[in-house]
Amino acid sequence: MAQKDHSWVLITGASSGFGEEFARQYAEQGHPLVLVARRLDRLQTLAETLRRQYRIEIVAEQVDLSDIAAVVQLHQRLRERGMAIDILINNAGHGLQGPFVDSPLGATLAMVQLDVASLTAITHVFAQDMRARGRGKILLVASLLAYQGVQNFAVYAAAKAYVLRLGEALHRELKRDGVTVTTLCPGMSDTGFATAAQQKLTPALKLLMMQPAPVVRAGIRALQAGRISVVSGWANKALVILTWATPRWVHQAFLSHAMNG
Ligand SMILES: NC(=O)c1ccc[n+]([C@@H]2O[C@H](COP(=O)([O-])OP(=O)(O)OC[C@H]3O[C@@H](n4cnc5c(N)ncnc54)[C@H](OP(=O)(O)O)[C@@H]3O)[C@@H](O)[C@H]2O)c1
Question: Which atom of ligand 1 is nearest to the CA of 191?
Fold first, then answer.
């Protein structure tokens, strides 16, 4: 086992998918963890397994992150317990597939609240502490869809474009304070995302599908190296190059077909 690293890692959305995998990989490195999500039973089961396997300290926090007051309270609770978060994995989020006008407004705004407002709030409160300590690392989980507008994923793609732009700006802004900000852009991956987003799995998406482990490894490696952003997987990297290298109508038509069939 690798030598133990005693800096605390906070992972949002740790009850499934990428978040669960981030917890496994950081546990393997010996970090103590704070796991955050709404499904406490899943967090507790994961915490129990990882504690037994790696002998690390783990705190499971049941929080609905779309409630900004709950985000502030979480930050306050951890402070009162003297827990300084050195690595923040801002991963919780969900998508929603469907025509913009037909999607319920409430569900659409709830997504914006979690993917944009909550992510901003968490980053804000923990980045302040990191800046005061002169060290820290923040990973923002965006998406491959951040690189362009996507038919039937209009608001999700726009929300993830926000995350990518926020991360790029904060990377420069916080660098001089000793805080690293990196944005991870995964493509289609085998997590709970598709079910939560009511996403149609087209043949192209099945072909591009990645497992969470290599995506998370790419994110941790990029964060550790202090990179501004990373796209996981060669096929996904090629899709970003396609976005840069072709007229807008070409890559929009291509991705729209891949996403919607
Ligand atoms: N999988 C993909 O294809 C893909 C591609 C690009 C980007 N992403 C991004 O990757 C991130 C992680 O998603 P995933 O793919 O791992 O999907 P997932 O398996 O559905 O995980 C989503 C996580 O977010 C948590 N979450 C959702 N709403 C929450 C809330 N209101 N409060 C607290 N936690 C909440 C969920 O926990 P609870 O339900 O227990 O609260 C769960 O742990 C998201 O930001 C997503 O947009 C995914």
Answer: 19
